Amino acid sequence: MERRSFLKQMTLFSLSGFSINFSDKVSRKFLKAESKDVVNKAKIFEHGKYTVWKLVDRPGFFFKSGMAIDADGAPNAYHPQDVGIDNLKHAGKPGNWWALVTDKGIPNGNPIIQGTDDPYPGYYISTTALCDETKEITNPKRYVDSREIPYIVLPENNNEEFLKKTNIKLGDFAVIYNGNNGKFAFAIFADTSLYFAGDIEEYRFGEGSIALAKALGISLNPKNGGVKNNIIYTIFPGSGNGKPRSIREINTQGAKYFQQWGGVAQIQTCLISIPDKDS
After folding, report:
1. Which residue(s) pair with 227 in the sheet?
2. Which structural domain range is residue 188 located in?
3. pTM
4. Are residues 13 and 42 in the same domain?
């Protein structure tokens, strides 16, 4: 299908986000799977109940999980009195502020508070791994705003094992499908996570920004929102340039790579092929 025709089928579009819902007769046309459709996939990586897959005949990888909501990058994410849009514990703790700008530039420093010329005076400066390096480290606008940009978070545990095995880089594009309601949206890989279950470092699969949750029809409160299962993440290694991108660029580039990968019909057959244990 030509890109112009593909984009004309999309039912929802706005400059503040991008979401497609195939719940009407258009969806039935595009999501109908032929009996000959077989997902020829290979396993890239497995940890616990999660498996990362790839199609053997085309680039990209995918996995199924839930989605937690990540507020990082939003200038009102964290506050010294814990009145930000997310719980302060999600930014770290004294001696290990992994999601905040500190006076030492490393996690064991003291968090810097936004001044009167910043977007949210009195709040901490929340960071993302992907950033605009042309702006100062203490400029909140250096980071990818979770409220505005649909982004995903991927684990960097065990010496970046996940990132190395998938060959994914910050700034690469993705398409995220919500199997619970039929919506999907394009996104950018903008942040990484280290997850600890108790004192044990553990993988955490499935995180997205506030803007991405909104586009997918998911409860978007970073404190108690998200969804437990049935979300398909498809990511395209080598598709980005390592820099933050506008929503228009994310949508345009995401649509291009998604179409090349197989589009809606492909993501549906992949969803059916993934064992239930994966989410």
Report:
1. 67
2. 3-69+149-278
3. 0.86
4. yes
